[in-house]
Amino acid sequence: MAKKEEIQHDCEHCHARYKSIFCQIAPDEVKIINENKWCQSLEKGQQLFAEGAYPHGIFCVNTGKIKIHQMGDEGREQIVRFAKEGDVVGYRAMLAGEKYSNSATAIDTTSICFIPKNVIFSLIEKDSNFSIQLIKLLSSNLKHAEESILHLAQKPVRERMAESLLFLKELYGLESDGITMSVSLSREEIATLVGTATETAIRLLSEFKSKKLVSFEGRKIQIIDVQGLLKVANIHD
Amino acid sequence: MAKKEEIQHDCEHCHARYKSIFCQIAPDEVKIINENKWCQSLEKGQQLFAEGAYPHGIFCVNTGKIKIHQMGDEGREQIVRFAKEGDVVGYRAMLAGEKYSNSATAIDTTSICFIPKNVIFSLIEKDSNFSIQLIKLLSSNLKHAEESILHLAQKPVRERMAESLLFLKELYGLESDGITMSVSLSREEIATLVGTATETAIRLLSEFKSKKLVSFEGRKIQIIDVQGLLKVANIHD
DNA sequence: TTTAAGATATGACATTTATCATATTTTTAA
DNA sequence: TTAAAAATATGATAAATGTCATATCTTAAA
Asked: In Å, what is the separation between the CA of B31 and the C1' of D26?
C-alpha cells in the first residue's frame, strides 16, 4: 500500500470529478463522498494496489498517471490499460466482488482519492444515472480491450509500436512545446505495452528516430511526424 | 438481420433466464419483458448483427452458440468472445449509445430473444440489482479480455492453441460421450480465435493429434488428454 | 567524484510464425 | 452421381521476432 498523505481535497469543486463518473451526482452525495474519501499521493513507481489483493473501494485519479498491469509467465509484465485525471481505477474487481486481477502503479507523481466500497454501492442503489456512468466506463474499457486483442492478434510489432506512440500522445497529451510527450515510460514499459521484447522495442524506436518520425530528449519521446506514424501504424483517414 | 420466427417463448419459466442477468428481477418486470421481447431463430452461419449498425436493444441467447467477432486489416476476422445459453449479446454498444463495434454470428443453430432498448433502460432505472448484474457481466467480459491481451502478447501460438481448446471445452462442454467437444469450428475460425494463420492452426492441431492430445471425428474435435493440453498450454495447478 | 547498477543500444543468431504453393479430402450444388 | 468449390493438409521458404552477448550511456549511491 502507498504511504498516506494528510492533504484532503474538496470533492465539491474537484476538477477531476467533473471529468469522472461522479460528474452528475447530487450535491448531498458529493458531500457523503467527501466525508468518506481518503486522499493519497504516490511517487512515480509506487504501487497503488497489487494483483491478488482484496479491494475495499475504488480509486479516483486526481492528477497524475497510472498504469494497470498484469504479471505474465516468467514474471513478464503486461500493461493492459492506463488511467489519468478523472479516471477511476480498481473498480472492476470491487464491483465484481473479486480479488484484483491486475496491479496499478503510478508512472508519474500522482494524487488519488480512495472511496470506500459501501459508499459506491449505496450510490449505485440510489442513483441509476451513476450506474449508467459506471456501465459506460466499463463498456469503454471493454471496447478498447477488444481492439487491443484484434491488434495484438493481427498487426505486426512495427504497426503496434507506431499505434502505441500515437495512443500515448492522445491519452496524456504533449508538453507546451507541442512535440514532447507528457508521459515518460522506459523502453521496457513501452515493450510491455506494445507486447514485444525490450530489444525489439528499442530497435523500432531507433528506426523511427532515424526515419525522423520521433526524436528523443533525454528519456522523453518527441513526436515529430504524426502523419508518418499513422502511415507506419497502417491507420487511414 | 436474421429471419424472424414466430415462436414466442415465455420468459417467466425460461431456463435461459435463470442463468442470465435477468435471473433476479421482479415478476412484473418479467411480464413487461415477456410482452416486449421478440424471439428469433438463427441457422449456423447466420449473422445476428454487424459491426457499424445501430443497436435497438439487446439479445439474450436461449439455446445455441454465438461468436462475437471483429474485422481486422485485410478482412481478417478476429473472434473476441463467445456467448451461450443465458448470455447477453449486443449490450455493450447499446448501453454506451454507440454503433456496434463488432459482429455476432451463430456458430450453431441458435434461438435468441430480442429485448428493446427502452425496456432495458427502464429496468436499470427501477432495479439497482439489475444494474449490478449488468456491471458484473461487463466486469467479467473485461477481465477475460485483459487476460486475452496478456496471452496474445506473451504466450507462443502453441500454448494459446492448447489453451483455446481447453477454453472451448469449458465454455460449451462435451457431448454425452465425454470427449467430443460440443462446439464445432472450422480450422479458420479456430485460427482467428487463437490469433494465428490458418495453416499454423492446422499444423498445431495435427501435431496435437499425433501427440494423442486430441483426435478428430469428422469436423469435431475430441479432447483425449486434458493433462497433456494443460501442460502444452503451460497452465499449472 | 567515483563506482556500481540500471537502462539503452546494437550485432549475431536462433526460433517462431507467416506465406506461398500445391495436394488431398470433404462438402455442396448441379 | 459427378463436378466444382471449399476446407484441410503439408512442404518449402521467407519474414518477423525473440534471445543472447556485449558495449555504451545514464543515473543513483557510496
From this structure: 69
